[in-house]
Design goal:
It is a single chain. This protein is an alpha+beta fold. Helices cover 39% and strands 26% of the residues. A 5-stranded mixed barrel has the order 7-8-9-11-10. Strand 1, helix 1 and strand 2 form a beta-alpha-beta unit. The N and C termini lie far apart (68 Å).
Length: 268
């Protein structure tokens, strides 16, 4: 007995819980099996990959990145869709997003970037599941609804990639000059330039990377909201903190000072 599945473009993917999203995703994966037990009620909708990525860039340009399921209604009562839902709405109605020639040119550049970087990671055996999905997407001419979900995140992913590259380049330039600061196992007073704030989702905490004295790398974990506390990239902060450790990082090969029990005294 066959199981009828709706066209995925008719489902409200953006409002689904994670569990619902995974359940439907599994259903459609099973539908691709050749045992004949599953059929779709309609032909699956697909869209031109370049056009979808250009749309993703246009949406990101207009509203930044809003994660799937995190759309909202603003103070004026206007519905702000998450990026994936906004893209799907445009693809199905064709009257909501203005796609410029620059968006399409940027889409080509984005595809080339990810095709190159993901292929390099694949050769190194370090490709994760999401990156595998990205590599598959940029090598296809047409993508389905799941591909749209992946494409929605690509402008934001490229931004993060550029940011990581810039931070790495700066830390690389400090390998020969970075020195330990403060006295290990004692509290100290530090003036720091914040160069990177990365949220570690699995741990629910931020890793803050700073430069002291223009050359010394200092890092600390921070659990509070950076937007509220002012621990933001580009800011200068004055803190008192306990020097937990000093040594060469296995990631950056820089001499780093790790501090904790951080008390922010001044921003700017």
């Amino acid at each position: 007995m066959s199981k009828q599945l709706p066209d995925p473009s008719t489902l409200d993917w953006g409002s689904m819980s994670k569990a619902e999203f995974k359940r439907w995703e599994l259903e459609y994966e099973l539908a691709h099996e050749t045992n004949g037990n599953y059929t779709r009620s309609k032909k699956v909708s697909t869209w031109n990959t370049n056009e979808v990525i250009a749309t993703a860039i246009a949406v990101d340009r207009k509203q930044g990145f809003i994660r799937s399921g995190y759309g909202y209604t603003d103070q004026n009562g206007v519905e702000i869709k998450d990026n994936k839902t906004a893209i799907m709405h445009h693809l199905l109605t064709r009257d909501t997003i203005e796609i410029t020639d620059q968006d399409r040119a940027d889409a080509e550049e984005l595809k080339e970037h990810f095709a190159g970087s993901m292929t390099f990671k694949k050769l190194g055996g370090t490709l994760n599941d999401f990156e595998t999905a990205i590599l598959a997407l940029v090598n296809k001419d047409e993508i389905d609804t799941y591909g749209v979900a992946v494409a929605a995140s690509l402008p934001n992913s490229m931004r993060h990639s550029a940011k990581r590259d810039a931070v790495k380049e700066r830390l690389d330039s400090l390998i020969a000059v970075s020195e330990a600061v403060g006295v290990q196992n004692k509290r100290g007073h530090f003036t720091l330039d914040v160069v990177d704030v990365t949220f570690i989702k699995k741990m629910g905490i931020h890793m803050v990377t700073c430069i002291e004295g223009g050359k010394n790398v200092v890092k600390f974990w921070f659990s509070k909201d950076p937007d509220v506390t002012g621990i933001l990239e580009g800011n200068s902060i004055t803190v008192t903190a306990f020097v937990k450790s000093q040594g060469k990082s296995k990631y950056s090969n820089c001499m780093e000072t790790m501090i904790n029990r951080v008390k922010v005294e001044k921003i700017g």
